[in-house]
Write a structure and sequence with these properties.
Pfam families: Aminotran_1_2, GntR. There is one protein chain. By secondary structure, this protein is of the alpha/beta class. The protein is 45% helix and 13% strand. The chain folds into three domains: 3-74, Orthogonal Bundle (Arc Repressor Mutant, subunit A), CATH 1.10.10; 100-121 and 371-471, Aspartate Aminotransferase, domain 1 (Alpha-Beta Complex); 123-365, Type I PLP-dependent aspartate aminotransferase-like (Major domain) (Aspartate Aminotransferase, domain 2). A hairpin with a 3-residue loop joins strand 1 (64-67) and strand 2 (71-74). Helix 8 (182-193) runs parallel beside helix 9 (208-216). The longest helix is centred in the last third of the chain and has 25 residues, at 364-388.
Length: 472
């Protein structure tokens, strides 16, 4: 390639990435005017035609729009049907505009079907006081020192032995990183391996926080549908060839929000594809131990021998959300880069949390606790399914996890259902928030894990009544 052309292409990408990065990080707000072509060309010391070319491509990608004689402005991310919302409910309005869960989770409701968290009354709260005392006896200076960036060595060695015993894998403590929950792990991975305009594959639907994290990093998301039987692997390989993605973020075990589990054969094939096309697989595994009848297949990372999988295992949901303990497993070449990002983020997760978790995780009480939680959650799932049976709605009954992914009739007014549900002290998650394309308007996520059995029955009866009144 001619070096002059190559240089111009580099400058164009530099301008495009700069503007996109500012927009994705919300430094330039919706409908805010961005610098003129002349101004940005002067600031970046490039030709005005280079800036104009970048602006035109940003316009084509719906990142900016033009006002006659006024210049370029940041495009709104509002959905086209926003004007049909009940604007009298600011929570509904803000929630659907931003596609964030934060607004809905901040709303105090009596019947909580939006939180993919376990009822605090099911967690081992009384036992933890014993372990806190034990930790202070064993480590009297635990509050007077930091953990290492990579995480407490004693905890990493314990978890390493756990994974070796559980999955017959060959890993060392040096291949584990302790993070403050799985969301921090996803954030570190996005920061480390993604730059603006990199293509990232996502399941559709997917975990909403991960969608937001990668978009904020400037990633271009390409979606792969997930079904009860897994993925269309031919379509997946075609997308890998066509888009050359940097990584594929996936949640293959009791998937959030659908509850689907990818079968063993596909797990093996995913590793082969990743190795063949030099693709990173980011396996997010937050619900692995929350199964009802039988354990799920081994994680994808257990089939990986070439270092193509970064495995995130969270223990927060069913032990103690407040401890915020998760672990990342990957080969040393990837680990070194993650350690740099972790050191800049917090210089290491809190040592006290790690020590408390360590001693509870190593106890017999944990296994007894897990067995009780599985039974309690299976009962709650069955209650939800029984209460929804009269609706005629569709769903695939999950074999684990915390959520029911429910399909409503086509053209059902989901936004209005959300608004009316709030009026009845009920919350749920519209499918759009779990969709990178913001289109799954006839789907909703209902979590059966947070409300107790009485609340489930009462709240779902109210919810079904609201939905039936809207259907009429």
């Amino acid at each position: 390639m001619d070096k002059t052309i190559e240089h111009k292409d580099y400058l164009f990408k530099k301008v495009y990435d700069y503007v996109l990065h500012r927009i994705e990080r919300n430094e330039w707000k919706e409908h805010e005017k961005i610098p003129s072509v002349r101004q940005l060309a002067s600031e970046m010391n490039v030709h005005r035609l280079t800036v104009l070319k970048a602006y035109q491509l940003l316009k084509k990608h719906d990142k900016v729009y033009v006002k006659d004689k006024a210049g370029y402005f940041v495009q709104s991310i509002e959905t086209k049907h926003l004007e049909n919302l009940n604007q009298n409910n600011p929570i509904v309005s803000a929630y659907l505009q931003k596609n964030h869960l934060s607004e809905i989770h901040q709303s105090a409701v009596s019947y909580q079907f939006s939180q993919a968290l376990i009822d605090p009354n099911l967690l081992p709260n009384h036992y933890f006081s014993d372990y806190v005392k034990k930790v202070f006896d064993l480590y009297p200076k635990v509050l007077a020192t930091y953990s290492t960036v990579q995480g407490d060595l004693e905890l990493r060695e314990t978890l390493t032995q756990y994974f070796i015993n559980q999955y017959k894998t060959h890993i060392s403590a040096d291949e584990l990183l302790i993070t403050s929950g799985s969301q921090q792990a996803i954030h570190l991975i996005a920061q480390t391996f993604i730059k603006p305009r990199d293509v990232v594959l996502f399941e559709r639907p997917s975990y909403s926080a991960a969608i937001d994290i990668f978009k904020a990093q400037g990633a271009q998301i390409v979606t792969v549908d997930i079904q009860p039987e897994g993925y269309d692997l031919q379509q997946l390989e075609l997308y890998i060839q066509q888009y050359k993605p940097r990584l594929f973020y996936l949640n293959p075990t009791f998937h959030n929000p659908t509850g689907y589990t990818v079968p063993v054969e596909q797990r093996k094939k995913l590793v082969e594809l990743a190795e063949q096309y030099r693709l990173l697989l980011i396996e997010d595994d937050a619900y692995h131990d929350i199964y009802f009848d039988e354990p799920p297949p081994p994680p994808i990372y257990t089939y990986d021998s070439a270092g193509t999988v970064i495995y995130i295992r969270s223990f927060c949901k069913y032990i103690s959300p407040g401890l915020r303990i998760a672990t990342v497993i990957c080969q040393s070449s990837l680990m070194n880069a993650l350690l740099t990002a972790k050191s800049l983020a917090d210089n290491g997760s809190p040592l006290l949390n790690q020590k408390i978790f360590l001693h509870y995780f190593s106890s017999l009480r944990l296994q007894q606790h897990l067995e009780k939680i599985r039974i309690a959650l299976q009962i709650r799932k069955e209650i939800m399914e029984e209460e929804l049976a009269i609706t005629g709605w569709q769903w695939t009954s999950p074999k684990g996890g915390l959520n029911l992914w429910v399909q409503l009739p086509n053209n059902f007014p989901t936004e209005l259902l959300l608004s009316k549900s709030f009026e009845q002290n009920i919350s749920f998650v519209p499918g759009q928030v779990c969709d990178p394309l913001k289109q799954l308007s006839s789907w909703i996520r209902l979590s059966y894990s947070y409300a107790n059995e009485k609340q489930l029955k009462e709240g779902l009866k109210r919810f079904v009544a609201v939905a039936q009144s809207l259907a009429k």
